[in-house]
Amino acid sequence: MPTGVHLRDARQQLFDAAERVLLRAGPNGLTSRAVTEEAACAKGVLHRHFADFDAFLAELVLDRAAQLDTQARALRETAGTGTVADNLTGALTALFGPVPVAIIPLITFRDELRARLRQARPGGGMAVLAEVTAAVSAYLADERALGRVAAGADIDSLTLSLVGGGHLLFADRDPGPPATASVRKLVTAVLAGVVRPEHH
Is 40 strand, coil or helix? Predict the structure, then answer.
């Protein structure tokens, strides 16, 4: 890589390379050497822009977690339209895409990475799951305000059930992500009794 490449371009190139390595080789295969080789740049490029590899990984996770904002906004925009179950089924499938699901074990197994994420932002230790949780919780609150989710519904418990169950469904992507019917079955079971049948 030419030394004159703009910082932002170098960072994005390294992030994209890390994402490809993570998807192909998993968390154990994600090393600074693998990233720089994938990005076709000298190892020094990574260390010129980041204090160390954990600093790089923390920035990668925060960057990818921030990208979930678009999907979170899209979910909130569905409030009051379609059915609650269909909206959540589609949202969980998008929010638990291949990259977020690959990042979660990376965070889980790297103590230093979790510590840096917590320093970077409150609740950042599990940045991806925090974004998914916030999105689902805000959507359910919107639907409750619209009367499509029962007024007495415990949004926190519903969110925990949907996000935890969704994560378990999507965590094992071999041979692939779960079928839409499986995700909808989870959502329907969690929402039983809090969503009127016509909105289910």
Answer: coil
* Sign of the dihedral defined by the CA atoms of residues 138, 139, 144, 146, in that order: positive
| Chain mean position to CA 85 | 20
Judge whether 98 and 23 are in contact, CB under 8 Å. Answer: yes
How many other CB atoms are there within 10 angstroms of residue 94's CB atom? 17
Q: What is the pLDDT of residues 137-168, one digit of tens each?
A: 999 999 999 999 999 999 999 999 999 999 99
pTM greater than the 0.85 cutoff: no
Domains of the chain, first to last: 1-49 (1.10.10), 67-199 (1.10.357)
- Integer Cα distance of 107 and 114 in angstroms: 6
192-196 contacts, C-beta under 8 A, 24 or more apart: 193/150, 194/149, 194/150, 194/153, 194/158, 195/84, 195/85, 195/143, 195/148, 195/149, 195/150, 196/148, 196/150
